[in-house]
Specification:
It is built from nine helices and three strands. It has 222 residues and is mainly alpha-helical. A hairpin with a 3-residue loop joins β2 and β3. α4 crosses α6, α5 packs antiparallel against α6 and α5 runs antiparallel to α8.
Length: 222
């Protein structure tokens, strides 16, 4: 199992979480591909740690359904289920619609300026060097700012769980890059709704944003 050549400096307290976050990123970026077997011994040697934090990190990944363990046989990266996109996108759309309505009620001018700044970062990443993970993370940061303004921790927790799998799907979408201007436009329309305190339009725009993303991913599949 070839692993990326990178240097790490993990503290004892954070080693499990750091390994979890790193392997999660590899899975999202397809550096660890669907169906690929993961060997805890190799991971431990790579990070120069014992097998215990690696196994604990893999347990967290299994809870997130990014890997699956076949007892006594292997731990493998889960396949991407392109046939059931709605299982991810329908609940995400509903949660994001609710979040944007709550956020508009609470948003201050500072919150709106923050959304503009985050969307500018997203725009710069799309029109810049095409760092796919940076584009994805900039998109997540924009939507997370709305969740933070909404102030409902349960909505945010559920969205964060869905984001992990959606990022994995959208890595291919962002890598294609042909329709990303639509996402910039969607963000701009949401910001306008914030400025007008129009929660109904924001909710409609948010749903259209997620629905279009599903259609675009399906079109990339061919």
């Amino acid at each position: 199992m070839p692993l990326p050549e990178e240097h790490y400096n993990f503290s004892k307290v954070s080693v499990k979480i750091r390994i979890y976050e790193t392997i999660k990123r590899w899975i999202i970026e397809m550096r660890l591909k669907p169906g690929e077997q993961i060997f805890d011994v190799e991971i431990a040697e790579h990070f120069q740690v014992s097998r215990t934090p690696v196994r604990e990190a893999l347990q967290l990944l299994e809870m997130q359904k990014l890997v699956k363990t076949i007892p006594g046989k292997a731990t493998i990266v889960t396949e991407i289920d392109y046939d059931n996109l709605e299982q991810l996108y329908q609940p995400m759309a509903v949660l994001q619609q609710l979040a944007v309505r709550l956020a508009i009620e609470k948003a201050s001018p500072k919150d709106i300026e923050n959304l503009k700044r985050l969307n500018q970062t997203f725009t710069d990443e799309i029109r810049g060097e095409k760092d796919v993970l940076a584009i994805s993370e900039a998109d997540v940061n924009f939507h997370t700012a709305i969740l933070d303004t909404a102030g409902n921790s349960y909505i945010k927790d559920f969205c964060n769980t869905l984001w992990i799998h959606i990022q994995r799907l959208e890595y291919c979408f962002f890598r294609e890059g042909s329709t990303l201007e639509d996402s910039i436009y969607d963000h701009e329309q949401l910001i306008q709704a914030f400025e007008m305190k129009d929660d109904f339009t924001a909710s409609v725009r948010m749903k259209a944003h997620w629905d279009r993303t599903v259609m675009q991913i399906r079109s990339i599949q061919g």
